[in-house]
Design a protein that fits this description.
transmembrane; disulfide bond; membrane; elongated; iron-sulfur; metal-binding; 4-stranded antiparallel sheet
C-alpha cells in the first residue's frame, strides 16, 4: 500500500513538472506569434513643436517600431521610420553631417530619408505629420 502512494505522489510531481515545462515553452512562443495589440499598432504620437530643436532628431516608438522626427529649416518637420530598409537595423542621426547612418552596414540616408550610399534598397518610410497650434502629431 505504501509503494502505491509513493508512486502516485511521484506521478503527480512528474505531471506537474511536465506541465510547467510545456507552459514555459508555449507561452513565449504564443506571445511571439500573436499580433500586436491594436492600441500599439494604430496610435498617434504627439510632441510639442518647441521640444524639438532645429537640426536635432527625436527618436520615439510608433506602431511598435522605431521612428524619428527631424526639424530643419528647408523641409520643416519630417517623421520617418528609423528602421533601415536593408536589414532592419535602427539608423542613427549624424547631426554634424545632417544625415542618417545605419550602423550595421554603413548605409547612409539624407535627412529626408533618401538613400545616399550603401546597401539599403529603398528610402526610409515617411510617416504622416500634421502640425496644429504648436503640436506635432504623427500618424
Amino acid at each position: 500500500m505504501e509503494n502505491r502512494d509513493r508512486r502516485k505522489f511521484l506521478g503527480v510531481c512528474l505531471g506537474g513538472i511536465a506541465s510547467a515545462s510545456i507552459a514555459a515553452v508555449a507561452y513565449p512562443l504564443f506571445r511571439y506569434l500573436s499580433p500586436i495589440p491594436e492600441q500599439e499598432n494604430s496610435g498617434k504620437v504627439t510632441f510639442q513643436e518647441s521640444d524639438i530643436p532645429e537640426g536635432e532628431a527625436k527618436f520615439f516608438q510608433y506602431a511598435g517600431s522605431a521612428a524619428v522626427l527631424i526639424k530643419n529649416k528647408e523641409q520643416g518637420v519630417i517623421a520617418l521610420s528609423a528602421v533601415c530598409t536593408h536589414l532592419g537595423c535602427i539608423v542613427q542621426w549624424q547631426k554634424e553631417r545632417g544625415e542618417f547612418l545605419c550602423p550595421c552596414h554603413a548605409g547612409r540616408y539624407t535627412a529626408q530619408g533618401l538613400v545616399i550610399s550603401g546597401p539599403p534598397p529603398k528610402p526610409l518610410q515617411p510617416l504622416h505629420v500634421s502640425i496644429a497650434n504648436g503640436t506635432i502629431t504623427i500618424g
